[in-house]
From TrEMBL:
Localization terms from the record: Secreted
Organism from which the protein derives: Equus caballus (Horse)
Main location per the UniProt record: secreted
Record's keyword annotation contains Signal: yes
Record has NADP as a keyword: no
Protein name: Defensin beta 103A
InterPro entries hit by this protein: Defensin_beta-like
Domain (Beta-defensin-like) ranges: 44-78
Pfam families registered for this protein in UniProt: Defensin_beta
Keywords from the UniProt entry: Antibiotic, Antimicrobial, Defensin, Disulfide bond, Secreted, Signal
SUPFAM superfamilies, sorted: Defensin-like
Any one GO BP annotation for this protein: defense response to bacterium
GO CC annotations, alphabetized: extracellular region
Signal peptide: 1-36
Length: 81
């Protein structure tokens, strides 16, 4: 049987590396202010499911707004029924 030396895994330098990796992972996954990331992606896909399109400024005259595509204010538009 192979025995593992647990004292190596609990040394201060290894613990610092684990803490550093956790901090970097947390910063990488944290959303950037003004950029919704995952929220924007979900809203865009929900707009496409509802047969809409994402408009940058506003809907065209023959379209109606059915939601939003991003946190920054893009609108989800589809043709009026």
């Amino acid at each position: 049987m192979m025995k593992y030396n647990l004292s190596v895994l609990q040394s201060p330098s290894v613990m610092r590396i684990h803490f550093l990796l956790f901090a970097l992972l947390f910063l990488f996954l944290m959303p950037v202010p003004g950029n919704g990331g995952i929220i924007n992606m979900l809203q865009k896909s929900y707009c496409k499911i509802r047969k809409g399109r994402c408009a940058l400024l506003g809907c065209l005259p023959k379209e109606e707004q059915i939601g939003s595509c991003s946190v920054s204010g893009r609108k989800c538009c589809r043709k009026k029924k």
